[in-house]
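User: I'm writing a tutorial on reading structure tokens. Could you give me a worked example: one chain, its sequence, then its tokens, then a sentence or two explaining what the tokens reveal?
Assistant: Sure. Here is the example chain.
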Amino acid sequence: MTDSSAACVVPESPVLTTNAVNRTLSDLHAPTWFALLSANIAARTVVFHPLNLAIARKRVTSEPRPPGLFAFIAAAYRGGALHIPAGDGRNTYEMGAGGLRGSYRGLGAALTCNLVGEIAYLFTLEALKERMTKGAAARDGGDVAAEAFEGHSGYAAVAAMCGDVVSLLTVTPLVIVANRQMTAQYGLSAGNAYSGVRTTLTEVWRTFQPPRAAAGWAGARLMHGLRGLYQGTSAGLLRIPASGCWWALYTKSKEELYVLCAPRLEEYRQHHAAAAAAAAPFHQHEGAEHVSLLSSPVRLLLSGTDNPAINGLASAIASTATTLVFNPLAVIQTRQQTLPPAHVARLMGAPQRGGGRRRLWRLYASSFKKTVVVAQELVRVEGFRAFFKGATANVGVAVFDGIIFSLIFELTKLSSDLQYLS
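And here are its predicted structure tokens:
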């Protein structure tokens, strides 16, 4: 090859056999992936905590027309008393010291449960999805990677729901602590005093302990303690389909968008690379066979295999649809976890008596009954609109968080890809 012809060659970056749709857990260097995931989760938790604090407080408001989202954020930073019109008068809530401390109330518990919960969730999701995909391929006698953009959205949905169960059972006690810390002394949770993680866990453990529990059967104390630590689990279980819905929509949207856009993006990439090669001075190409002429941002945006714009759009579609459908359960779950036990007991009515297995069964049944009666009170007192309290903010946060999550999540997988690292 002559020097003149070499000057016209468009250098290529290493070609990967994996892409954003079909990349699996076995394609990754696990320690690198876990480290990048942890940094991603911690950063998103810190950035979004003031918004999540405002949303949690909005969900436990008793007023028919609570302040807007930014009013809650400003009140948390300002501190002091917050006055909300209610009927002929107004309700006053003490917001605490204010400043960054007020805006980041409950951050420690939220950060811990997000790190543990998300890593457990994503590892379970990726491991089960890969196992089911390989199992199906083995049964069919086919190749797992037969289709370049086959993401197996059905398997992704099932694996995501299993991951949600693991995450729910792992971090629900810390979620309750974070919710109590964020909503303490406000709204329907005005009777809850703000305290540290250890003290709050102790209070939650004692929530459903009967007066003479200390002298009773140890198994009963454990049962009542776990009942306190896993408040709202019934609503959380009802929300598990939301996880499957999001991942099914996200995976399927990625499949369709990549199939639709990949050929055209490849044309654009070749065109821009050729234009860059023609415009660059001759001497810049000597010995540059392994260096791309396109800058990294342009190469990513023109990628037909790992494109952040496509991943972000797929995430926005999934987040919008899923959040709107499942917002009512989010409202119910937050109220279950933060309402005073006496208030919920009045809604539930007098408990039936019984022992042994019947008592254990009623414990599970009463948890779902609590979800129903909280929802009934919500409709009776505040109307169906109450199910969508914070929905606008939730959709905005979910879309923004989903886009950031998908961009960084897919980037962490790409950066942990064994082929990419080699």
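What the tokens reveal: The chain is about 65% helix and 5% strand. The beta strands are 81-86, 89-94.
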